[in-house]
Amino acid sequence: MVKNFNLDPEFYDLQVNWQERLKKEKNFFVKLIKERNIKKILDVGCGTARHAQMFSSFADNVTAIDPSSEMIDYARKNIVKSANVTLINGGFEDLNMLPVGGFDLAVSLGNTLPILGSRKKVKHALKSVRKKLEEKGAAVFQFLNFEPRIMEKNRFYKPKIIKKSGKVYFFIKHFEYGKLKTRIDFLIATISNDGDVEDFYSDSSLLCTLRINLFLKMAKNAGFKKIELVSPDGNGLFDKKKHISLYALLQK
Ligand SMILES: C[S@@+](CC[C@H](N)C(=O)[O-])C[C@H]1O[C@@H](n2cnc3c(N)ncnc32)[C@H](O)[C@@H]1O
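Above: query sequence and S-adenosylmethionine SMILES. Below: predicted holo structure tokens.
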């Protein structure tokens, strides 16, 4: 099977400005953790586990799960330093293998839900996350705003040029909106000191086009009672005509 989102953990980690991203996201999560007295957190599709490491300072236990063994190995070796983070190799499909006992908060960030690729898989994922929550538990899904006009406006992300260990990495991302599936293309070139292209990588994945009304319907069908849509900075309400992404906060 060809893996959706087959991006090397080192490349993934390199193309995100983590300092900026976590600074922006931290307040939203810390407020949520404090307000809801959250002790146990589950992060599904944790990637390189930077969020899990951040959560570990604010919660008793963090379980971070990802089906890519490369991501989990990279996270274990380079990112996770806290003893209260457990890294597990698996996906939404494997949540029932987690030890019994619910979580106060489950998160799935960085567009992981649409990366599942189909509506059927998203529906299943929402249900399986709900099952892992404590009675008053909550879930946060962060994903792109798939409104066609917003997608069209942002279809080419600004290229990123990153210098590391004497090399230059050039990243380009592009979206091709489709009613059911949206294609995401990554191009990465490694450029030597002399300006020659040393390596070239391209990857395309099909995302489930998770427009907001569809998501709301699916989340209700999965049994979530209250759903709040929050702006990407975590400070206000989501505006589907303006924002490029959102947090959906769901109550069990
Ligand atoms: C764009 S990355 C997001 C990583 C991280 N959550 C973040 O916000 O930076 C998407 C992640 O979803 C994972 N993924 C792919 N299929 C999945 C599945 N079926 N269940 C859970 N995670 C999955 C990938 O391995 C990848 O690490």
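The first strand starts at residue 40 and ends at 44.
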